[in-house]
Amino acid sequence: MAPRQPRRWVRRWGEAVIERGLLGCALVSVVTTAAILVILARQTGEFFSEVSISQFLFDSQWTPLFADKHFGIWPLLAGTFLTSAIAIGVALPFGLLAAVYLGEFATPRVRAILKPTLELLAGVPTLVYGYFALVTLTPLLQRVLPELSGFNALSPGIVMGVMIIPMITSLGEDAISAVPGALREGAYALGAGKLQTVFRVVLPTALSGIAAALVLAVSRAVGETMIVAIAAGQQPRLTLDPQVPVETMTAYIVQVGMGDTPTGTLEYRTIFVVGATLFAITFAANLLSQRLARRFRER
Amino acid sequence: MPEAFSESACGPAPYRTMQPSDSMPDTVAAKLSVQELSAWYGEKQVLIRVSLDIPERQVTAIIGPSGCGKSTLIRCFNRMHELVPAAKHRGSIQLDGEDIYANGVDPVLIRRRIGMVFQKPNPFPMMSIRDNVLAGLRLTSTRRADTDAIVERALQQAALWSEVKDRLGEPGTGLSGGQQQRLCIARALAVEPDVLLMDEPCSALDPIATTRIEDLLTTLRERYTIIIVTHNMQQAARVSQKTAFLLQGELVEFTETDALFTKPKDKRTEDYVTGKFG
Q1: Does some domain include residue A67?
Q2: pLDDT band at residue A166, thresholds of 50, 70 and 90?
Q3: Number of C-beta neighbours around residue A32 at 10 A
Q4: Model pTM?
Q5: Overall number of domains in chain A
């Protein structure tokens, strides 16, 4: 069959092109990540050639834009930690209980309506959340807490928590519905009620999946930028008081990145060293989350 | 111990009456009495007016081809059937003369009196061997001081004690399949039920593990009323005193195991036990 020969050759060549093309698409994100790492590492390296690591780690002030420069990372870390902790404090109980409700109690119809609605929350632009925190929630909270400053950690922390709820609910519900029905039946057959079955058999079994969801949520909170940049203020401050203005790592990067800091200066490099710190934290959290999720699947 | 007693010359031990050869159906009390039981999943009827009396302290086997309603039948006995959405039933089931479906009867209390062992061993993965045995007490918030004794007794009864007594703190899922199934039996026995339902308890086990469970049944039936669903006719013949044959939701024949296998009255039973279908 002579005529088939060239066609087969064309097909093979065509398949090779398509294969390469697909590989290229897959590589885009890998190459981007690698490029980001290289740039972060280079700029961070140059930063540390001018500022000592001990100053970065042990100074208690962060004032790179002032005349009296200090480069201690802790005020930014504290701001990030504080807002994230408030966010998780809000998101974990609500998100988890919503997941329990959706996974164990809701009828299929209710679930079919509620789950997509909840996931819509994830589609709200964070800018909207940020202004909601600044112009709506903060004034409301000020009625209860007169001490609360106009910029603070509490209000954006709460709003960030609301933003993260759907994520915990969705991943938590996946973990809960992955628990084999045989275990629920085993508990019922022993005379356990619904609540006992859910809280003492299903949830403990889903624990590693829930932990993975939690870690992912932490990494989302730590990396969240717009809400805290708008509503938490821009004052790096080593405090755990949620009522005063603070600055998170992400908000600092926005502040410098959008300001008139000339490129190539030490001030400019600070955003890379902060970015590298942020990257390290979220990367570690994602790794941990993946490991937990894998352990969960093996079971 | 039961063997030693029955061989001795101290006169007939009461439990000897449970042997199929000399059992007397009229005098053995019915532990579970099923009247006109029909069951549905949605529109599909899976049990059609089944009536039978399960004798106390015997092993009753329920056999039949796949989809004949065997599992549904025993799941009606401990009210697990109603946990399936759209499942419903009609008819009555009496445990010691009391209707388990009567108004105001808590299914949870019924399930404490009628334990169940499933097809696939399902120990709770986050619990140790010990905690698995105690799960029934813990899940029902039953406070008992003598937990060590309960654990030992239940594991002894399930013939698992000697194999696990030095590692009670290890996870139950680390045991072999046969050990896991015996752990599930111990878990069911720890709440001291009257009746033990077993839904094809050996279908996921190898022949050696199966033999161990079958041996276990002969000792357990001294204390418990056992109902075993099985796919395996040899198993029914080996372990049970009475056998029910179910076909397409109907109870075809229910009689002494020996009689059912050697001189079945119904043509369909004969075809099934001689392997013409199924």
Answers
A1: no
A2: very high
A3: 10
A4: 0.80
A5: 2
pLDDT at A187: 96
Binary contact (A189, B118; C-beta < 8 A): yes
In a domain? residue A57: no
C-alpha to C-alpha distance for A186 and A194, rounded to whole angstroms: 12
Find chain B residues with C-beta within 8 A of A196's C-beta. Answer: 139-141
Q: Name which of A185, A190, A299 is nearest B139 (Cβ-Cβ).
A: A190
Residue B15 has pLDDT above 50, yes or no: no
Contact B139 A204 (CB under 8 A): no
* Residue A228 belongs to a domain: yes
Instruction: Let me know whether A162 and A279 are in one domain.
Output: yes
Residues A219, A269 within the same domain: yes
The two structure tokens encoding residue B187:
């878990």
Q: Could you tell me which chain B residue has the CA closest to the CA of A107?
A: B85
**Nearest residue to A43 (alpha-carbon basis) of A256, A219, A288:** A256
Q: What are phi and psi of B26, to 5 degrees?
A: -70, -25
| Closest CA–CA distance from residue A97 to any residue of chain B (Å) | 20
Residues A177 and A31 in one domain: no
Give the 3-state secondary structure of residue B74: helix
Interface of A with B (CB under 8 A): 180, 182-183, 185-193, 196-197, 200-201, 204-205, 207, 299
Place of tokens 């480069």: A71
Cβ contacts (< 8 Å) between B84 and chain A: which residues?
none
The reply to whether A43 falls in a domain is yes
Please indicate, yes or no, whether residues A237 and A93 belong to a single structural domain of this protein.
Answer: yes
d(CA A20, CA A22): 5
> Is A231 found in the same domain as A88?
yes
Structure tokens at B89: 């039933």
The beta-carbon neighbor of A191 closest among B112, B126, B173 is B112
pLDDT of residue A130 exceeding 90: yes
d(CA B107, CA B94): 13
Q: Average of pLDDT values for B184-199?
A: 95
CA distance A206 to chain B (A): 9
Q: pLDDT-derived band of residue B141, with 50, 70 and 90 as boundaries?
A: confident
Q: Could you tell me if A182 and A266 lie in one domain?
A: yes
Query: For residue A183, what are the domain limits?
Result: 74-298
